[in-house]
Design brief:
By secondary structure, the chain is mainly alpha-helical. It has one domain. It is built from nine helices and six strands, in the order ααααααββαααββββ. The strands form two sheets. Strands 1-2-6 form a three-stranded antiparallel β-sheet, with helices on both faces. A three-stranded mixed β-sheet has the order 4-3-5, covered by helices on one side. Helix 2 packs antiparallel against helix 3 and helix 3 packs antiparallel against helix 7. The longest helix has 20 residues. The chain is globular.
Length: about 325
């Protein structure tokens, strides 16, 4: 019996814990970011520091995550290798980086007129990588800053999804005299009333099943949000080639939901250089939508103040299906 106990102890020590495996997965991802996007050693060191402050941030809890599609299956859906299929040299000249798309209004502007670019894929912004989840909004802002990028404002994400970046139309006047949640709800109602009659989705004027990464399921036994019970169940980013906006941005529908900055005053706009930022908003619809339409959503739709906080609050929300993408101002 004592020998069996010792053998069990040896096996336990030899088997990586979930935390160790998560760290190993993250290191693998950091190497990919350097190889495929040219992220520098200094940037990776800062990114590594931010990840080290979290026990859960990464591409899902390895102990319970069962991805909805393998990377091999995703690769087979593409007519060319992802590094060729998704590379856009015009975008790279404008944005100065791979896998970013310029945001502009095609009705009045050319791609070269763009003042801002957005990651084509959810972070780590590598085609066919799994999205980083269990990330707080303040961590997302720090990770974007580590690469000289920033978190996007709500209207920028909506412009990417709707296929036209328009001038911001925040009703800051409605936020005056209201608490945080009251201000969000007033502004949200006015915005959705304005854009509701002309609603569209990233791929067209009608919502459709099967276009985006929206046919997965929660982990068996997932109780709504625990690290130990809920795997990410995401797809490789970009694995649905038709789930692309008119501006060339993927997975704005489906896959992970995304942190975004919702300014409640002009001096909280990331697009105007603010570092204090506003409050959190979760953008996008995630991976169960083909089965369960859990709530309304469309390209310019703004969500209720779910799990709301200041973006830079250390207590901002995270969960197994919530990620982010970064934006960068064009110099």
């Amino acid at each position: 019996m004592r020998g069996l106990a010792i053998l069990g102890l040896i096996l336990a020590l030899a088997t990586p814990s979930a935390a160790q495996t998560l760290a190993e997965n993250n290191e693998r991802m950091f190497r990919q970011m350097q190889q495929e996007r040219g992220v520098t050693n200094a940037q990776i060191n800062r990114i590594r520091e931010i990840f080290a402050q979290s026990r859960v941030m990464g591409q899902g809890n390895p102990a319970v995550t069962r991805y909805a599609m393998t990377q091999e299956e995703a690769r087979a859906r593409l007519p060319a290798p992802p590094e060729r299929y998704y590379r856009n040299r015009q975008f790279e000249r404008i944005c100065g980086r791979p896998y970013m798309a310029p945001l502009y209004d095609p009705a009045t502007e050319r791609p070269e007129d763009a003042k801002v670019c957005v990651d084509m894929f959810e972070y780590p912004n590598i085609p066919l990588a799994y999205p980083v989840v269990w990330v707080k909004a303040n961590e997302a802002a720090q990770l974007c800053a580590a690469e000289g990028k920033r978190m996007g404002d709500a209207h920028e994400w909506e412009g990417a999804a709707a296929g036209a970046l328009l001038e911001p139309d925040y009703r800051f006047d409605l936020a005056q005299g209201a608490g945080m949640s009251g201000a969000v709800n007033r502004m949200r109602q006015a915005h959705n009333a304005k854009w509701g009659p002309s609603r569209s989705w990233t791929y067209g004027p009608q919502w459709q099943r099967g276009i985006c990464a929206q046919n997965s399921s929660k982990s068996p036994g997932c109780n709504g949000g625990s690290w130990t019970g809920c795997g990410s169940n995401t797809y490789p980013t970009g694995s649905f080639p038709n789930c692309k906006s008119a501006l060339g941005v993927y997975d704005l529908e489906g896959n992970a939901a995304e942190h975004m900055n919702l300014p409640l005053a002009p001096d909280q706009m990331a697009s105007r250089g603010s570092k204090s930022l506003g409050v959190t908003e979760m953008k996008g619809s995630w991976f169960i939508w083909d089965k369960i339409r859990a709530h309304e959503e469309w390209a310019r739709w703004r969500a209720p103040f779910w799990h709301g906080s200041q973006v830079m609050s250390p207590a901002s929300h995270s969960n197994y299906h919530l990620g982010f993408r970064c934006f960068v101002d064009v110099k």
